[in-house]
Specification:
This protein starts with 7 loop residues before the first strand and ends with a helix. It has eleven helices and twelve strands. α5 crosses α10. By secondary structure, the protein is an alpha/beta fold.
């Protein structure tokens, strides 16, 4: 007889949501641990978001993961927020507690930390400089993660330099790393002496144009992390590996951010394994 909560219901909300790997990811763990429950994709238009959340809560769902474009709406809807959600202004996990209360969490920050530690080493940015490309919600999570990993300085490069400055101003009071924002024109200077470059933009995603950038001022030892995992090998990662750089995609972050979410939803701490990675890679190849 299972010691876990029976027939737990959860899911992922997005618009669109059919591209999400989360149902396959959580479904794998549900089978692996013999948990009686379901994790379903929920396509929800922005105009319907708050009503659907209320309906799911009333229907007995334990909670839902939240993806684009609902992370800011989920932040506004939550009655309580964890520290990462408060600092990023974004929520990717809503938990339905008793009395109608909704808790918002952001698991992207610990997810990226865990992925970088496993794939590039715990000291990849410790007391070093890192570069983040982009200034949206994903970039906010990246900046927080890099600071938690001990980065001395995080250089935020965005095509719209005003957005980069706003992000830096919002986050600087909450983190130890020094934030240096700038427009795309500062890229050559931002790249100098960096230990890690993280692409937090949609450039290179399936159907989107690739990043156009020069690697000339990057040190040979710099590592690359592209948060994109579809395709698994973006043009940025191809070029980086061709030049001998260590490079990882966003699949590790996806898996590791799901660990605390699965634990909160289903009451079991799952393990990220090579078999899980293979299953997700095969799903992406179909």
């Amino acid at each position: 007889m299972s010691a876990h909560r029976p027939a737990t219901l959860a899911g992922v909300i997005g618009w669109p949501v059919q591209h999400s790997l989360s149902p396959k990811l959580h479904g794998y763990w549900l089978r692996e641990y013999g948990i009686e429950g379901a994790y379903v994709p929920l396509p929800v238009a922005p105009v319907d978001f708050s009503r659907v959340i209320d309906g799911l809560r009333r229907a007995g769902f334990m909670g839902v993961n939240v993806t684009i474009p609902h992370k800011q709406a989920a932040f506004a809807l939550a009655h309580r927020l964890d520290g990462a959600a408060q600092r990023t202004g974004a929520v990717n996990l809503l938990l339905f507690a008793g009395g109608g209360e909704i808790e918002g969490r952001n698991t992207d920050v610990p997810g990226l930390c865990a992925s970088l530690r496993e794939e590039l080493g715990a000291d990849v940015v410790k007391e070093k400089a890192a570069v983040v490309l982009g200034a949206g919600g994903a970039a906010r999570a990246v900046v927080l993660a890099l600071s938690e990993l001990g980065a001395r300085e995080v250089r935020i490069v965005n095509r719209n330099d005003a957005r980069a400055r706003t992000l830096a101003a919002d986050l600087q009071p909450h983190i130890a790393a020094a934030l240096v924002p700038g427009g795309w024109s500062v890229w050559p200077q931002a790249a100098e002496g960096a230990a890690l470059l993280v692409n937090a933009t949609s450039a290179g995603m399936a159907g989107a144009p690739s990043l156009e950038m020069s690697f000339d001022t990057l040190p040979q030892g710099v590592a690359f992390c592209d948060l994109i995992y579809n395709p698994l090998e973006t043009e940025l990662l191809k070029q980086a590996r061709a030049r001998g750089h260590r490079a990882i995609n966003g699949l590790g972050m996806l898996m590791y951010q799901a660990v605390p979410a699965f634990e909160a939803l289903f009451g079991m701490t799952p393990t990220v394994t090579p078999q899980l990675r293979r299953e997700l890679e095969q799903a992406l190849a179909q």
